[in-house]
Amino acid sequence: xxxxxEMINQLKLEFPTLRVGNDDDGYVNLNIEEYEATIAQWADxxxxxxxxxxxxxxxxxxxxxxxxxxxxxxxxxxxxLS
Amino acid sequence: MTKARDLANAGTALTSVSATELGYVDGVTSAIQTQLDAxxxxxxxxxxxDIYYASAANTPARLGIGSTSQVLTVSGGVPTWATPAxxxxxxxxxxxxxxxxxxxxxxxxxxxxxxxxxAYQVVIEELYGVTADNDPVLEMLYSGSxxxxxxxxxAGGATYNSTVFDNVQNSNTGQFTFGSHIGNSDYISxxxxxxxxxxxxxxxxxxTGVWQEPNDGKARFxxxxxxxxxxxTGFRLRSSSTNVTGKVAVYxxxxx
Lengths: 82, 256
Hints:
The complex is a heterodimer of chains A (82) and B (256).
Chain A: H1 4-14, E1 19-22, E2 26-29, H2 32-70, H3 74-81
Antiparallel strand pairs in A: 1-2
Chain B: H1 2-10, H2 19-23, H3 32-37, E1 51-56, E2 59-63, E3 71-75, E4 78-82, E5 91-102, E6 117-129, E7 136-142, E8 145-146, E9 151-159, E10 166-173, E11 176-177, E12 189-196, E13 206-213, E14 218-226, E15 234-239, E16 244-254
Antiparallel strand pairs in B: 1-2, 3-4, 5-16, 6-12, 6-16, 7-8, 7-11, 7-15, 9-10, 9-14, 12-13, 13-14
């Protein structure tokens, strides 16, 4: 499992600077405090997403194992629960 | 013409008037002054943008140019320039901006919610991230500051090939997440959000809308609110963890 600091380091490599703005008014780079805060926020979100995906994967694997144990297909399980 | 020349050549009293000059009045069939009086004077128009109009029958008048964004309307039976009152009826475009590779939209869409309107339509024409599997995120702004807590609501939907309905939950969150895949340049997302309870007095902001995620062929129905009452002046968009690119338009709905 990747740590938050490792995730921050990855994000900093991918995004060495960050900016805000628009085509009409122009763009400005985030200052160092804003940059650090944004990268930390992004790291938290990425770790949260990874955890969600791992949880969903584990649920799918457990479900598949249970179907094998019961000796029925997914369609049969759906029929049983309908 | 020959009469005029004859006259010019007739005697010494007319020696200062040439036959050519007398020729200029050839064809005149009535008093010249009467004919001139029937014309409008060029000098009526004194300034760039002036418009001629009739203030009464056969009475030319000048209407000076209006101000930027004013429209020509009628008052008391004559034309006049006027500022559209509260956008008139229907929707009025407040702002339309394009941005690329930004961490968030910053203050681009701050100051779009004011007391001029009671409700606002935000058309997200395009929005996508560097990577597709990021959440699209909404945050409310109040005079440049970001509201970082107290978001509630849901963004439920299903993919094109499934009857399973999933929901992005927002229960006292630090931002409002209204999807699960913001898409990328090959799968550009779009949607519409309606805002109420913003821009006028300190209120709990609320929004509803729809959102489509072409990356996984998903449609979402959105309902959210911000439980901290403030006079919200705008919003910002971003993704959960990457830069975003897009084009967004904000319209105000006439107050009455």
